[in-house]
Design a protein that fits this description.
The complex is a heterodimer of chains A (266) and B (154). Chain A is built from 11 helices and 14 strands. Chain A has a 5-stranded antiparallel β-sheet. A 4-stranded antiparallel β-sheet of chain A has the order 11-12-13-14, sandwiched between helices. Chain A has a 3-stranded parallel β-sheet with strand order 1-3-2, with helices on one face. Chain A is globular, with a radius of gyration of 18 Å. Chain A starts with 6 loop residues before the first strand and ends with a helix. Chain B has 154 residues and is an alpha+beta fold. Chain B folds into 2 domains: 75 residues, Ubiquitin-like (UB roll); 69 residues, DNA polymerase, domain 1, CATH 1.10.150.120. Helix content of chain B is 34%, strand content 15%. Chain B is built from 5 helices and 5 strands, in the order ββαβββαααα. In chain B, strands 2-1-5-3-4 form a 5-stranded mixed β-sheet, with helices on one face. In chain B, a hairpin with a 2-residue loop joins strand 1 and strand 2. Classes of the chains: A alpha+beta (266), B alpha+beta (154). Chains A and B meet through strand 1, helix 2 and helix 6 of A and strand 4 and helix 3 of B. The structure holds flavin-adenine dinucleotide and FE2/S2 (inorganic) cluster (FES) (2 copies). Flavin-adenine dinucleotide sits at the interface of chains A and B.
Chain lengths: 266, 154
């Protein structure tokens, strides 16, 4: 399986990458770890004429603490995040999330920016981004802006990124009490259901991936929460549950409730 | 497009098409056929090599992405006639039957033992999540990596 022909350009700065995106428009694709894009190109589901490799841009692969927030550069690989003591100590829910992405080899290449931009409905990060109320930093031809997690995911493989924008970093508040629970697809290891819960006193924030074609905040669960896992029964209230060969609607709905309960109990 | 990289300690420079995958570059341009292609879709791990010390699936990288990097393939593991302790342990413990998955298993083991020199059985099994073996049932592969860890630590 060989992709169709393309030109490959290695961008050396964010502004160069943004300029190249503006110049080539729909013909171009950003390349980070390549672990979603390259398989799609090999299957010719995607045929960009220009690949703009952003993986070498300096400053996009650091993990820092600033003003009470943890900032993860868009090019940080899942392995890098998994090995970060800062993330482990102050944002453990993210450590738990990346630990169950794919396998060692996939984690050595896949990045947080690529995962969010790709918006695979079965990917893990979205649940955690939502529950943590993370903020996505992007840059485009009109400068930089931030997007709240709740506004970022728009549908299957669809986000609120503009055509000329790239994700530069993701900002997380520190999380003391959070956890991620996942039911794996047995072969690919993507999430059939993934649930992230952040607890703060009497309130919870719940992010769910894998259940619907768009990851969502389970507001009905959050409203019903009274300190135990009963609220998990509201996991799919007002949600259109998806169906595929891993799990039909009935089974997936059941799993969603069970995994929200598990995450509330943990 | 011109790329320059180090493979098993030697520098190479080649002019290749950007769409050439790293595994095809290694096998067809460099003639290093020890790295296998199983699924070609990032599932099986047969094509695993290390890139700057990290295990990666070379069917899901473009050769141009490896420009400037250091690559190690199974051919680079032995020191002349002297097998690497991981290879020796696979031989000793029947860690292979047909051997198709073995280069990928060995290269993944390099990464497992680099990040965790004393892995538990469970940690080894989790570490091999991206590598399929259709022959051994994994048991002896896990044993091989346990023995290699002891050997490397002694
Ligand atoms: C075998 C296998 C198993 C996997 N298992 C899991 C799993 O269990 N859970 C999971 O969540 N994921 C899984 N993944 C996906 C993996 O985490 C991907 O690597 C990740 O989703 C995409 O990151 P990337 O850096 O490889 O992006 P790329 O493939 O480089 O890019 C993906 C898309 O995002 C765009 N893009 C990349 N970076 C940016 C940016 N900074 N700004 C704007 N657009 C950008 C690209 O143009 C492209 O459209 C798996 C992948 C494989 C191959
Ligand atoms: S051939 Fe690369 S993972 Fe199977
Ligand atoms: S030894 Fe035959 S596939 Fe592993």
């Amino acid at each position: 399986m060989i992709p169709s022909k393309f030109d490959y350009i290695k961008a050396s700065s964010i502004s160069e990458a943004v300029k190249l995106l503006g110049k080539h428009g729909y013909d171009a694709k950003i390349l980070s770890g390549g672990h979603s894009l390259i398989p799609a190109m090999k299957l010719r589901l995607n045929r960009p004429l220009v690949l703009i490799d952003i993986s070498g841009i300096s400053g996009m692969n650091t993990i820092t603490e600033q003003g009470g927030e943890i900032i993860i550069g868009a090019n940080c690989t899942h392995s890098q995040v998994l090995k970060s003591d800062l993330v482990k100590n102050k944002l453990n829910i993210v450590t738990q999330t990346v630990k169950c992405i794919g396998d060692i080899q996939v984690r050595n290449r896949g990045t947080i920016g690529g995962s969010l931009a790709h918006a695979d409905p079965s990917s893990d990060y979205p649940a955690t981004i939502l529950a943590c109320e993370a903020i996505i930093e992007v840059e485009g031809k009109n400068g930089s802006r931030t997007i709240d997690a709740i506004d970022f995911f728009q549908g299957i493989f669809t986000t609120s990124l503009a055509e000329d924008e790239i994700i530069t970093a993701v900002r997380f508040p520190k999380v003391i009490n959070g956890n991620y629970q996942k039911f794996f697809q047995s072969a690919s290891r993507f999430a059939v259901v993934g649930v992230a819960v952040v607890k703060d006193g009497d309130s919870v924030k719940v992010g769910v991936t894998g259940v619907s074609d768009t990851p969502y905040r389970a507001i009905a669960v959050e409203d019903a929460y009274s300190g135990n896992s009963d609220a998990g029964s509201h996991a799919i209230d007002n949600i259109e549950v998806m169906s595929d060969h891993f799990a039909d609607v009935e089974y997936r709905s059941h799993l969603a409730k069970v995994y929200v309960k598990k995450a509330l109990e943990a | 497009m011109q790329i320059s990289l180090t493979i098993n300690g030697k520098s190479h420079s080649n002019d290749i098409e950007p769409r050439m995958s790293l595994v095809h570059y290694l096998r067809e341009v460099m003639d290093l056929t020890g790295t296998h292609v199983g699924c070609d879709t990032s599932g099986c791990g047969a094509c695993t090599i290390t890139l700057d010390g990290n295990a990666v699936k070379s069917c899901t990288l473009l050769a141009v992405q490896a420009d400037g990097c250091e690559i190690m393939t199974i051919e680079g593991m032995a020191n002349g006639e002297q097998m690497h302790p991981i290879q020796e342990a696979f031989k000793e413990n029947h860690g292979l039957q047909c051997g198709f998955c073995t280069p990928g298993m060995v290269m993944t083991a390099v990464d497992i033992l680099k990040s965790n020199p004393n892995p538990t059985e469970e940690e080894i099994r989790h570490g091999l999540e991206g590598n399929f073996c259709r022959c051994t049932g994994y048991h002896n592969i896990v044993k091989s990596i346990q023995q290699a860890a002891e050997q490397l630590n002694s």
